Amino acid sequence: MSSRRATRAGITTTRLCPTYPPPTRRPLRSPPSFSNYALTTGGKNHTIAAPGVCIYSTWLGSGYNTISGTSMATPHMTGAVALCLDDGGVAGPCAGLTPAQIVQKMRSDAYGHSLAVYGYGFTGDPFRPVSTRYYGYLDWAGTTPPPTLTHVAKFPATTTVTSGTLRGGSAASLTANDDVYYSVNSTTTATRTTAWYGTFTGVSKQLTNLKVTYRGKNSLTCTQTLALWDWTASGGAGGWVQFDSRSVGTSEVGVAVIPLGSVSKYVGGATADQLRFRVRCTRSSSSFYASGDLLRLDYDKP
Ligand SMILES: [Ca+2]
Question: What is the pLDDT of residues 44-77, one digit of tens each?
Fold first, then answer.
């Protein structure tokens, strides 16, 4: 948002901003109402955060001013990139990179520094989300190398039926896309329902780039929903968060669930290392059974 529109929206400079320098160092800790944000995976992939509230800056006419908006956040980000390219005539870590590579480096450095330094960032960044809005990590112009990420792939250690009855197979049936199935019979009265979840163990709380892939089919078409257990929901009691809903019949369908924002809330339990993924299917009449072929967890960790 331009500074003029920000001012129109009520973000005036003299009444809300502290004088400069402020008496104590009190950085902004949450996104202002005018901040842009991402909701999609594509949008998330090019989003980064930079300071844009009460920025003290040089001004036209040899003066200084304090204003808010992306007019202030954008030059902050631009300056960070300039320092990465060249600092005082010395080539920086971004020298020689393509624009796309520089974007990737600024984003990975912002993530890496937020991960490495406790307290860096803000309420609303992916480590401390306040809603489904993705604001990105706070940009970092330093030279701290980001941690090297390690990819992890896992399959469920156990399965638990919560609606219906076990028909056949086990967690081991879900480790390969091989038409060997884990099957659950639906309930037999009222709304016919199958519901079961796979539990992954030994999952890092510092996971990122979380993806869960499920492949399955049903003996009759039903409405399939996929969900992750949020261990922090309802004041710590936990709750399912649904990510996908679709009709699935006798043809096997693969679905990848990729949650946005902070995903550490999906890891918890007694040993703080469990992730639960639920597959549920319902239809109004005629009992059926659900067959899962593959359930795979992928993520990166420092
Ligand atoms: Ca299988």
Answer: 888 999 988 888 888 888 888 888 888 888 888 9
Q: How much distance in Å is there from the Cα of 175 to the middle of ligand 1?
A: 6
Cα 291 to ligand 1 centroid, rounded to whole Å: 9
- 296 CA distance to ligand 1 middle (Å): 11
Instruction: Tell me, yes or no, whether 188 and 64 share the same domain.
Output: no
Do 183 and 134 have their domain in common? no
Kindly give the distance from the C-alpha atom of residue 162 to the centroid of ligand 1, in angstroms, as a whole number: 21
So what's the pLDDT on residue 138? Answer: 92
Other Cβ atoms closer than 10 A to 226: 21
- Greatest CA separation found in the chain? 79
| Together in a domain, 133 and 158 | no
Of the residues 122, 145, 168, the one at which a domain ends: 145
Residues 161 and 238 in one domain: yes
CA torsion sign for 236, 227, 189, 184 is: negative
Q: Cα of 302 to ligand 1 centre, how many Å?
A: 30
Written as six digits, the tokens of 66 are: 């304090």
Beta-sheet pairing, 90-91 with 86-87: antiparallel
Of all helices (H) and strands (E), which one includes residue 168? strand 165-168
Query: What is the reported pTM?
Result: 0.57
Indicate whether 124 and 180 sit together in one domain: no
d(CA 172, ligand 1 centre) in Å: 8
Q: What's the 81 CA to ligand 1 centre distance in angstroms?
A: 47
**Spans in the chain with pLDDT lower than 50:** 1-15, 22-28
